[in-house]
Amino acid sequence: MEMKKHQEDQFAKLAVFLSETKQPFINVQTDQITHAMELLKVLPAAQDAVLEYYGKFFDYAISTYLKQLKVQPSWVESSNSSSRHEPPIIPPEVIENVTSIRDVLLRLVEEDHLVWAHVVLHWSYKLLGKVSKHYNVNEFARVPLGEMLRFWSQCSVAYILVDINNKTIAKMVKAEGERSVDPMIEIMLGYKSSSFEWVLAQIGDSFPSLVVMDMLLYGIKEMCSTKKFKCTEKLNSFIRIIDHLSLTYFDNIKDVVFKLFKLSLCEEHQKLTAENVMIVPFLLHMAMCSSTLLNSMLCENLTQITPELLNKLVPLYSQWKKYFDEKCSLLDILVKMLLNADRGIKHVFNLIFQLFGCEDPKFKTLKTGTQTLFEIFLAEIELTLNTSLLSPPIVKELLANLYTFKPYLLSTNVDVAQPAARLFNRVAIRDPECLLPYIATMLIESKNSTQLETLIEVLSFGSNMAYFNASLVYALAKTDVSLSNMWNNINTLISLESDLPDGISIYGVSSAVVSHLDKICRSMIESCHCGDMNSAHLLSFILSKVSEKLCMKELSVPKVLYCVKSAVLYFFTCLFKEKDEMFKLKACLRMNKFVNTVSYRSSIARTAAMKYILDGVLKEPFSLLFVMPDNRRNDYIIQPLEKTSLTGSFFQQEYNSMFGRKITLKFDKDGLHPKYKMPVFDAKSVRFNEQRLVSFLRSCYSSDECYSFEPTLDTVVSLALLVVQFVSPDVMYNGLPWPDEDFTKVTIERDVHIYHTITTKPILWTILGILAGHRPALCYCSVLLRAVCACLINHWGAVNHTKGKSKDNPQLLDDTVKLLNTMSLGQLLPKPLDVLGVIVRELTPQQILIMLRDCVWTYTRDNIPAPALFLRNNIGGMWRDTMAVSVPKPYSDSLRLTMIENISEFGDLYARLFTNSKEQSIET
Amino acid sequence: MDYNEVKVNLRKFAFPLSTENALNQIQSIINGETSRKQHLNEDLAMDLISEFIFCETNEEGKSTKPMSRIRHLELLVMICDYFNKTKIKQDNDNCCGDTALNAIFMTLFPQFGAPPQRTNMLVSLVSLAISTYSNLILQSAGVQMQQLGCSSKYSLQLADGLVNKFFTFIGTQSTSLHLLPQNAPLFTANLMTALSELYFNPKTTDTTMSIVLPPRIVLETVVRWINSDPCLCFTAHYTDLQRALPSGAIPMVATLPFLGLFRWCFFAPLCVKNSEDLAIYSELHCALIESVMQGWKVYSEENPRISRPYTLSVHSVLLPQLKALIEETMKSNDPASMYSVEIVVERLAQSIHAAIISDTIFGNKQDLVNQLETLPANNVLKSLIKRIQV
Question: Cα(B149)–Cα(B147) distance, rounded to whole angstroms?
Answer without folding.
Answer: 6
